[in-house]
Write a structure and sequence with these properties.
By secondary structure, the chain is of the alpha+beta class. The protein is built from ten helices and 26 strands.
Length: 461
């Protein structure tokens, strides 16, 4: 849905005495969403934002969708992504921030099943939708470079939201900022995670995957396992601890009502800004060293590990192919190749692929082309996904899917849903995978899943 308008209101405030955490706790309302980044500099992570009180909701799975707006609910067996494309407001206007109202939520791994023939759904033990999106017309943007906070409201669906109504929304948020801060209990309940798959069973799955590699079915496959713990504490307190213990480019806390999603993902699935599309393949992982010397030696070893390099090259090629389906001829370029990026617990090999979208490509077409990332599926992607469906015991759900926003500006920023936790029905769930290739050592791949999940499994340490 394209709208030609520029109806919005905003108020800038000095922000040197406020943080996204304090503001999130001050603002009152339903389904509050918080997005932050640890990389607070001009090119990456300059902005954080909070959205509150959505005006519409879209929930969907393979059986159809439910769309609620203005107190009315429409249910259909049609494709939820087609419905999102139909209702997503894209404004022909220049706005000051990449996110300026729009859709926030997640697209689960199985959303890819709508486009490709992967197989039957596995057991849906968490009973969660494939797609859950809220639409926001009231939000707060942090500019960490300027130390400035902007309160904003927009007529998202072009339905005559008056200037007075937008100014009221802004003044209400401003009042809450200065009078409404209530700090939640910073403590949280005990976490004691147990794996869904026993070590010997995961090792056996790796061996089965390697048989398919030897037969030439695939070159690489990512097998994952889930860890679950009872949890009766404060989810936001858990997020506060996680963002400190494992700072990452994508940090998010999302209140869906009946469940909460929080995470610190190192990887972008795909980003669209001003019709430029970017993806950052991450493949090749090692635990951090205990000293600078040991850390540097591990990094050097990672860049000389033939197994890790082969895996990374395959996934870079997948990323280029994904963008090549949507980009203008000759615009796809590899601008970063095999850089080491370090995080609290692990280091990764990272590359960056960019392109310029063709004029006929909708931003949701980019999601369809890139989901799931090759880094969480394998190569060739479709065959790897089919085998994942045969080998893993339950539906992946949000794991290996995407979390983020589609803005009214037409920009999109989606994090890969890894290092991500679901809290639902007093249980916390974390999932992590390992890339299997011809010469993989099964026990080492099991250990890789532990290394990748450690940031969340050991959040209190």
């Amino acid at each position: 849905m394209t709208v030609e308008l520029r109806k919005f209101a905003m108020k800038a405030l000095q922000g040197d005495m406020m943080t996204p955490i304090s503001v999130y706790q001050s603002i009152k309302g339903e389904h509050k969403m918080l997005f932050e980044s640890s990389a607070k500099h001009e090119e990456s992570g300059r902005y954080s934002f909070i959205a509150v009180n959505p005006i519409a909701e879209l929930i969907g799975d393979r059986d159809g969708y439910s769309f609620t707006k203005g107190g009315e609910t429409e249910k259909s067996s049609d494709n939820v992504l087609e419905k999102l494309k139909q209702v997503m407001p894209l404004h022909k206007a220049q706005y000051p921030f990449a996110f300026f109202g729009g859709a926030i939520g997640f697209f689960g791994y199985e959303t890819a099943f709508y486009t490709e023939k992967i197989g039957e759904y596995l057991q849906d033990d968490l009973e969660m939708p494939d797609v859950h999106i809220f639409f926001y017309d009231t939000f707060i943007v942090f500019d960490h470079l300027k130390q400035e906070i902007t309160l904003a409201a927009i007529d998202l669906f072009d339905e005559g939201r008056s200037p007075e109504a937008m100014e009221l929304a802004i003044s209400t948020m401003k009042e809450q900022l200065y009078t409404g801060t209530t700090f939640d209990d910073p403590t949280f309940g005990k976490l004691d995670f147990s794996p869904m798959i026993a070590k010997e069973n995961f090792v056996a799955l790796v061996e089965r995957a390697k048989q398919h590699i030897r037969k030439g079915d695939i070159f690489q496959i990512v097998l994952s396992q889930r860890f679950t713990s009872p949890y009766k504490g404060n989810p936001f307190a858990l997020y506060r601890q996680l963002r400190t213990s494992n700072p990452s480019p994508y940090m998010f806390y999302m209140d869906f009502g009946t469940y909460t999603i929080l995470g610190t993902s190192p990887e972008s699935l795909v980003k669209v800004k001003d019709r430029k599309v970017t993806t950052n393949p991450i493949a090749g992982t090692k635990p951090r060293g205990k000293t600078v010397e040991q850390d540097n030696a591990i990094a050097e070893g990672l860049l000389n590990d033939e197994k890790e390099i082969a895996e990374h090259r395959m996934l870079v090629d997948l990323g280029r192919n994904d963008l090549g389906r949507l980009a203008k001829v000759g615009s796809v370029k590899l601008i970063k190749y095999m850089n080491i990026e370090r995080y609290k617990h692990v280091m990764h090999i990272v590359s960056e692929v960019i392109g310029e979208l063709r004029d006929d490509v909708h931003v949701l077409d980019v999601l369809r082309a890139c989901l799931p990332a090759g880094t969480v599926s394998g190569a060739p992607k479709i065959r790897a996904m089919q085998l994942i469906n045969e080998l893993e015991p339950v539906k992946r759900g949000i794991y290996a899917g995407a979390v983020g926003y589609i803005s009214a500006t037409g920009d999109m920023d989606l994090a890969l849903a890894i290092r991500t936790m679901i809290i639902k029905d007093h249980r916390a769930h974390v999932q992590a995978g390992a890339g299997i290739v011809y010469d993989s050592v099964p026990l080492s791949e099991y250990e890789e899943t532990l290394n990748k999940a450690r940031a969340l499994l050991e959040v209190k340490k």
